[in-house]
Amino acid sequence: MKLALVTDLHANREAVEAVLGHAHAQGAQRFVFLGDYVGYGADPGWVVDTLRRYLDEGAIAVKGNHDAAAVQGAQPTMVADAREVVAWTHGQLDAEQLALLDRLPLSVRDGDCLYVHANAYAPTGWGYVTSRLDAVRSMHATDARLTFCGHVHEPLLFHLSGTGKVGDFTPVPGVPIPLSPQRQWLVIPGSAGQPRDGNPAAAYATFDTVSGDLTYHRVPYDHEAASAKVLAAGLPARLAQRLIDGH
Amino acid sequence: MDTEAGPAKSSWRLAAGQVIDGFRLDAHLHQGGMANLWAVTRLGSDDPMPLIMKVPRIKGGEDPTSIVGFEVEQMILPSISGVHVPKFIAKGDFTGQPFIVMERLSGDSLRKRFDDAPLPIDEVVRCGALIATALHDLHRQHVVHLDVKPSNIMFRKAPDGSRSDAVLVDFGLSRHDFLPDLLDEEFELPMGTGPYMSPEQVQFIRNDPRSDLFALGVLLYHLLTGERPFGAPTSVRGLRQRLYQDPLPPLAWRPDCPPWLQELVLRCLEVQPDKRHQSAAQLAFELQNPEQVVLTERAARRARSGRVQTLRRWFAALGAEPAERGNAAGQAARSPILLAAVDVANADPALLDAVRDTVQRLLHTEPGARLACLAVLKINRIGMDELLDKDGGSKHVGLLVQLKHWARPLLQDLEATRPEQAGRVTFHVLEAPDAATAIVDYARKNQVDHIVMGARSSGGLRRYLGSVSAEVVAQSDCTVTVVRSVLRGI
Q1: Looking at the domain that runs over A2-245, which CATH code has it been given?
Q2: Distance CA A173, CA A156 (A)
Q3: Nearest beta carbon to residue B74 from set A159, A168, A180
Q4: Measured between alpha carbons, how far is B390 from A147 in angstroms, rounded to an integer?
Q5: A167 in reach of chain B (CB within 8 A)
Q6: Which of A15, A21, B135, B257 could lock onto A202 through a cystine, CB 3.0 to 4.6 A?
Q7: Is the CB of residue B370 less than 8 Å from the CB of residue B397?
């Protein structure tokens, strides 16, 4: 079965449409969403409605920190821009949409795969996996062979061997990586709705559960339109510029 | 310890007749240090390709080298293809019986021939060209082999017996530009085979394709002299010696070694990758065109460097950190072979100028490029040709003179700006009945990356005969630039 792993959609309709279209064309049979459906972007309602449609069709989805914040209010650790957007987003969503976000689980275990937004060691602490040390901590906290998470917006791949040696890798889009069954892997597909690695194209990944091949993808989309909508909504100009720069 | 512990438990339990994932074990072929090889048959398949199954030896305790190496090969082999690697068929992971099934190549590895070294010069050269060609194909597929040695080189005969290709096997230490390097963090010792390891591999650099050229240099040195250029060190200190001590030149062992061959072998063995050939294709090219090799002081060496120089190098090597290198395919792409196919005898002078201008621009943008200038002397398919003109001069030489004359402005420009690149310009006159076929064959054999040639002229005869450039564009595997001169009088 071919999974599509989409994370950090951040209310970016243009990016999400492009990613879902690309994933369907790649033959994705099941969708896994790793959280942060809202926050930063101008279309939170549309993204949550789209998520609902996919959930009805059997998709898996976990909750991100921005989703929790949209429901409960901003966390004290959030940066100023994010806090401002949290309040705005809350006002954009109706009770039903907020309830859907509130109901999402923090993590889902499916066979040897773990899906979680931030990390496996403390899902509600929202700690970032940005180094080999963080990755080891997360992989040690689960017996799942494969952990798929988001939260960090740059595509990354970590691996841990049976002898305890950890490695990291910056993936090349479009090249299938056979995930050897002899080790643990931690997969960060990269953000669909707000990429931060200098490339404005939307990021996501596909994983073939039979062959074990993981492929990272970059999908160009109309990021100028998405950026203009952020400005038109009266959200911080820095958030609009980030979509243009991919930073 | 191996002998006491006996053969690997997991593979020893395997027996002929057993079926694993649809493959029947037929015969145990070989037990190596890391793996066992079995001849196998795929049940229910009528594909006649003979197959082998490689099964890792899992020794009593933990043995990361064989496990991780096997993991690496399982990852890389399916991603590469072509005549220079064994065809990948299937793999099984460590949750069941770990294995890789691949094409079984007939014949022996080059290891067998090694015991007979020193070998005849022409055999050494032929071997070198075949292996360099195979390495270039691998590098273009983004893989550095990193364990080039005789036992990892096999040969494949074309079905019609017309040619033989080198096939590289065992990718357990290899590195793919686009895949995670599972070996990167695994070991605290340099990885490779002692005698063949490049200086940068000793310093833990694993992404430079020129490391494979160093190993090929060691291999050729051994075939040529029967000796190892750096011995067979077993300690890191011993391995590091190659960073400052140069090998005894082949001519010291073997007076019949042609100076050009010594030049090539010693260039492969340079400590700095920048001083070696910049791509395997460039080495293959020189091995196939010895008359074009530019001889330096390497060709004239009769002894090792003196003590003072060795000491100086030792000091330099002490604190030397290897520069971070690029990647396999990038390195190959930065060092392209350009072929200027020039119809010097017949083409319009304006067109000849335009072709030269284009070549010059390409050389300026590709400082690592080498240029081969080619003209074709047409001969008839049937019967003997008159290869002397009416005044008794050789047509071949006449064409070569014209070709060099055409290239003169290019050479002058290069000598003024980049003398090293000027030394890499070569000239070739081919005698063939069909120019297009000759150009395409030459480009293929010499792994040319880019052909530059003139468009057909507008003359009636040309139109009737058809266009050589159109034919080359249609037939060749590489990039072709067809140049037109500016139209005048319209």
Answers
A1: 3.60.21.10
A2: 11
A3: A180
A4: 80
A5: yes
A6: A15
A7: no
